[in-house]
Amino acid sequence: MITRTEYGGWANNVKLSNGQIELIATLDVGPRIIRFGFIGGQNMFKEFQDELGSANESEFKLRGGHRFWTAPEVVPRTYGADNGPVALEELDDYSIRLTSAPEVENCVQKQIDVRLSAAANEVTVIHRVTNIGRWDITLAPWALSIMDAGGKEFIPLPEQRPHMGNFVPETAIILWPVTEMSDSRIHWGRRYITFTQDRTKGPNKFGLIQRLGWAAYLLHGQLFVKYFDYLPNETYADLGCNFETYSDERLLEVESLGPLTTLAPGESTEHVETWRLFADIPELPDEASIDRVVLPLVQR
Asked: Can you give the pLDDT at residue 161?
């Protein structure tokens, strides 16, 4: 179920498979999950071919796949170069732990635990960051899945209710200087926001307080679903959002964040995502079709 493999020009990678789905994590750089998909099928994650196979660069490389950052986004800490070797520990037949080299300049060390379900198309990904410095630091784990081009993202919204008697807001939409709310890629619906990746358009980004705990990306008939938590009594980066999404002409990112945490030296914090993958999904042109097809699949 756990094997070593060459991939993308790297000699050292680890592959997890349960006979239905597989994922590949790099060991020459990272921690990074570079592939996730059905066995023999498309990679749901973007790969930047000109950045695969290399290692030990001094600057951050996007490369593709699923990466692990810390929020808020600041230079240089967020852009720590994950270009060195990763230690692999096999926890059991379907679980591994990936530990990066210490980021001495940022006073952190990152781990990703990956637990593949033995019988379902499901993966649990635990992102863990530890303060290896000599003083307290405040940060949040930030999990970014770089989806391949040509798909559509679905972000659920709180159920609409009558105005009278429902006076407390339920969510917030967070905008960046690059945000373009009139962008035709984004549809601000009643029950969902949809964000279509377009190879002809440049950067756009927004975030929100996502209490419903999931988002999905449809690519060539396959649906990637990401689950994550929102803890209402905690403080989040970026004006309080636990979910962010970004797209440009190359990719679309589905991102979730844990709460901001102050770590004393030696302390760690974790952020957990669950991924599911579904096949044979039709095009979903409207909210009624999303309700009919996606909702029964994403309900846990």
From this structure: 87
